[in-house]
Design brief:
By secondary structure, this protein is an alpha/beta fold. The protein is built from 18 helices and twelve strands. It folds into two domains: 5-182 and 356-369, Glycogen Phosphorylase B (Rossmann fold, 3-Layer(aba) Sandwich); 189-353, 3-Layer(aba) Sandwich (Rossmann fold). It is 50% helix and 14% strand. It has a six-stranded parallel beta sheet with strand order 2-1-3-4-5-6, sandwiched between helices. The longest helix has 17 residues, at 48-64.
Length: 371
């Protein structure tokens, strides 16, 4: 019996899509130590120059003119007008994709972003290729770029997300509500007291975790300044991600309160375990991780499009509150930290909504359908 081989495709390093692909890859190896995996940044593999251009353009748009991204995101008119361009890009990438598939010969393909999923789906159709293809959604609202006939299974964050795919013509048997795949460490329950001691934090003072996604985005400096000057009895952990400018700016400051400033952190599970509340942007991975840890969320500056839709879902489910401004975070945080019943309700609801086994369940299903 030959060892199964799984090709994982994502776009953008240091992204939620990448984190999800790594989580699935690790789960595959835990489920089957003999499985062979190949995890590739598909956009960089097929269009390295275009990737840099698009990433810079995207970051520029969401930072300076987010209303443009709001208009473009999942807009049926834009979808229709760009169909020809997407078909052209897929045809342009056919040669490299064929070479990759011929060399690795995967038993199954898993895509954690819509671009590679569409590329492989189109290639399956045009080449009459029979390789199981799995699309993994990392946000709570599916957009139209995910809809393809040649995707064998969709992994979705919630039952509600799955219903929206079905409403767009996807067969219900192809939709699996496993949740967003996150690191296997989030399945463990650690001792928050010991973690705080290891981080040199006070075990008797509420701890607030501040994150701006992998790239450390959002008004973090303004929020920290306001909280540091407040009369709230709290301590703060700041995970700056890959944002070196933010990290250096915060490390150079002197604070009244106990504030721990970290660069890119690979122990987010422990940071969340040690915290009472997280102030964050509602990226899909961060959201799924916070839910797994039963951590109430205070959402700030969600990006238009996917993060705005994630925010709507989290507010409806009662696991998050939204701050309209940096100062608003102080007002809401006071309400939360002085209302233990409210915090407990949000924690319980988060745990009930969480799906910490998503990566394992996804890996099991992929190995079952792999040929």
């Amino acid at each position: 019996m030959h060892n199964k081989k799984v090709l994982l495709l994502y776009i953008s390093e240091h992204s939620g899509h990448h984190c999800a692909s790594i989580a699935i890859e690790n789960a595959l190896r835990e489920m089957d130590p003999d499985v062979r995996t190949l995890n590739i940044n598909s956009f960089n593999y097929t269009n390295p120059i275009l990737e840099k251009v698009i990433n810079r353009a995207y970051m520029g748009v969401v930072r300076r003119t987010p209303e443009i991204w709001e208009y473009l995101y999942d807009n049926p008119k834009v979808l229709k007008k760009t169909q020809g361009l997407r078909d052209m890009i897929h045809r342009f990438n056919t040669g490299k994709l064929k070479a990759l598939l011929d060399e690795f010969r995967p038993s199954a393909i898993v895509c954690t972003q819509a671009f590679p999923c569409g590329m492989v789906a189109d290639y399956k159709r045009s080449s009459n290729l029979d390789i199981p293809l799995v699309g993994v959604l990392t946000d709570y609202a599916p957009h139209s770029y995910w809809i393809y006939n040649n995707v064998d299974k969709y992994i979705v964050p919630s039952e509600e997300t799955g219903k929206k795919l079905v409403e767009n013509g996807i067969d219900p048997s192809r939709v699996m509500s496993f949740g967003i795949p996150i690191d296997l460490r989030f399945r463990r329950v650690a001792d928050s007291v010991n973690i705080r001691k290891e981080l040199s934090l006070d075990s008797n003072v509420p701890c607030v975790l501040i994150m701006g996604g992998t790239q450390g985005l959002g008004p973090i400096i303004d929020i920290v300044r306001i909280l540091n000057r407040s009369d709230l009895n709290l301590q703060i952990i700041i995970a700056a991600g890959t944002n070196r400018k933010l990290y250096k700016a915060l490390k150079s400051r002197h604070f009244r309160k106990k504030i721990l400033v970290l660069p890119y952190a690979d122990n987010v599970d422990e940071l969340m375990q040690a915290s009472a509340v997280i102030i964050t942007k509602p990226g899909g991975i961060t959201t799924a991780e916070a839910l797994a840890k039963g951590l109430p969320m205070l959402i700030v500056s969600p990006l238009p499009g996917q993060e705005a839709m994630n925010t709507k879902f989290l507010l409806q489910e009662g696991v998050a509150l939204k701050a309209e401004s940096p100062y608003d975070t102080l007002v809401i945080l006071k309400e939360l930290l002085y209302n233990e019943n409210k915090l407990r309700m949000m924690r319980d609801r988060a745990i009930a909504l969480s799906k910490p086994d998503s990566a394992i369940n996804t890996a099991r299903m992929v190995l079952e359908i792999a040929k």
